[in-house]
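Before a colleague's protein record goes any further, I have to sign it off. My question to you is simply how this chain folds and whether the tokens agree. I do not need a full report, just your reasoning and any doubts. This is what I was given:
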Amino acid sequence: MKKALLLGTTGVAVVLAMLAFGFVAGSPQIAKAGTAQPVQTAADTKIDRAEVEGIIRDYLLKNPEVLLEVQDALEAKQKEEQRIAALGVIKDAKDQIFNSAFDGVVGNPNGKVTIVEFYDYNCGFCKRAIEDMRALTKSDPDLRFVLKEFPILGPDSQKASVVSMAFHLMKPEKYGEFHNALLGGQGRATEAAAIKIALSLGADEATLREKMKDASIPEAFSKTYDLANKLAITGTPSYVVGNEVVFGALGQEVLAEKIKAVKAAL
């Protein structure tokens, strides 16, 4: 659908109303020779609605780019408002974002720069983006990469993440291997697939299943969903780099530039 249509009827109505007001308010008043005429306002002037709408319609048909300009201005305004709101959330929830005990960490756990990824084990873009994480942590020994479970793609994702978090509680030192195997593997991530990987990495099945019942796991999910909502994160992967929220799998080059900017600000 063409971008202009994003305005919808409400946007068009706003444009029409503004133009209509400008037309009426700016309408010249004919004065009789030698007499002073009172200044008339838009409220004092009887509007010929059909005439005004005809003029506006003709103007917009001749200048349709006006609608695109309005749309671009609206998007820019909304993005700036979103950026400013995210700054406040990141400041207020710094520990929850960067230092949650429930999040896995790969790379240098004491790195000076931290990047946080919100991901879902069944997200195709996340599966492709895992190579970005591997490349970045390999090339930058000072990078701390935090993995925040954000299962939003159905029951399989939620159950796989429960196993993932239970495994993290048991063997945090092997969480990176578990994550790479499950997210980087073929096929759909399920509870069974996650358990199989956990057992292959030395987890005891009875202990693992008991950890899966830990009440702290759904509580952690709830906090992450709330945090994502505040940061306007609705899809995966999404990242927090410094004081910026980055949406989508934009590639390691873009993320590397963001990391570079954070380092420069230290």
